[in-house]
Prior knowledge:
Layout (H helix, E strand, L loop, with lengths): L1 H20 L17 H13 L6 H14 L3 E5 L2 H11 L15 E4 L5 H9 L3 E4 L14 H4 L4 E7 L8 H11 L2 E5 L7 E2 L2 E2 L6 E5 L12 E5 L2 H11 L47 H11 L2 H18 L7 E2 L7 E2 L4 E6 L7 H10 L5 E2 L9 H4 L4 E4 L5 E2 L5 H4 L3 H9 E5 L6 H18 L2
Parallel strand pairs: 2-3, 2-4, 3-14, 4-5, 5-8
Antiparallel strand pairs: 1-9, 6-7, 6-11, 8-9, 10-12, 12-16, 13-16, 14-15
Helix pairs in contact: 1-2, 2-9, 3-9, 4-5, 4-8, 10-15
Amino acid sequence: MEKELRQAVKEAAARYYRSIYGQKKEFKYIPPSGKLLDEQDLLHMIDATLDMWLTAGRFNDQFEQDFATFLGVKYALSTNSGSSANLLALSALTSYKLGEKRVKKGDEVITIAAGFPTTVNPIIQQGLVPVFVDCEIGTYNINAGQIEAALSSKTKAIFVAHTLGNMFDMGAILDICKKHNLWLIEDSCDALGAEWNGQKAGTIGHIGTYSFYPAHHLTMGEGGAVVTNDPLLHRIILSFRDWGRDCWCKPGVDNTCKNRFHMQLGHLPFGYDHKYTYSHVGFNLKITDWQAALGVSQIKKLPFFIQKRTENAAYLMKALADLTQWLILPTIASDVKPSWFGFLISVKPQAPFTKQQLVEYLEQNGVGTRQLFAGNLLRQPMMVENEIPLRIGNSGLLKSCDLTEKEYALLPNTDFIMNNTFWVGTFPALSEKELNKTSEVIHRFVKEHTK
């Protein structure tokens, strides 16, 4: 009876989807990002709802397995956002279980200021010191050639994002990490499916992170993941995600270790229930099975999503190629296969117009735009209004609230990105019609300003 009733509900939901959402959406305003959902996504969400299992369950198990298989990694752990994934990744490196490789308060982490704040926030939140290195124009990634000059005896890790799906110089950074015994966290929240020499973004360093917010390559609404090939890091990340507990049993399961009442940990009495033993100052950053059910459906379409983003970026690259006198289009290393989150454009300094003018024109004419997130994070109120210890390149220790134009000048390309760079959409729901409009509006603007 239950099976028949479940099927009837799903059939009704499918009819609803076809009636309400079955027609292709026409964009009066072209958003720079967005989700692409179909009937199967809805049916998976309905299926999870009918289970009435409110926490992570069978769908989460399936998603973590499917995601690890897609990436070719040993371990994938879901979490409630890409930002939480970053927090878990960095927090894991502070674990006492890592021994001498443990990252401690006051240690330094190499990063960049041109990106999303939640790549840098965990560094600050864990009492570590961010060390900012400038970016390259064109790839908008960290300038790997400047990293070694920024290292000190306190540097313990590199934590940077692959900017908008275009991977940073993995070869150079891997060499630096190996030479100086540094941890590498790849923030791949905007780069799911990108490849370097055939290896997927997020799977090459020690830990990789991903986001499943609606703007990203696949969506759970809210959601993210942390991946690694290291069994110890996997166990530590799991602990931080699940309240900091030492136990690794899944919800509703007891005594996976077969030693639940026979351990001596901390200063607890012998045999204290391992299920309630805590080894880290952790969080609760799990997802619901409803979110995971959507992820299980979405990941089946992930190769199509990545291919469509690739095709859309290639289309814009070709369509705008005649404007390179005034605009900088993305550059791609020969060993990189991007998985575009969006299409980055910079206005050259000698252009007879500004980024601000072009962005406002695009928005007024129905083409959505976005900044490269924080622009220059060091100029944001979160830094200006707080006494956050940091370094810039090979500078001495500074306070974020005391930075002047002299210090900002140490990151000239980061300021260039803030002033000159923006991006437009490549997400899979966009067709040639929308891409043509984007190109036409940009061409019309440039023509009007270069007569």
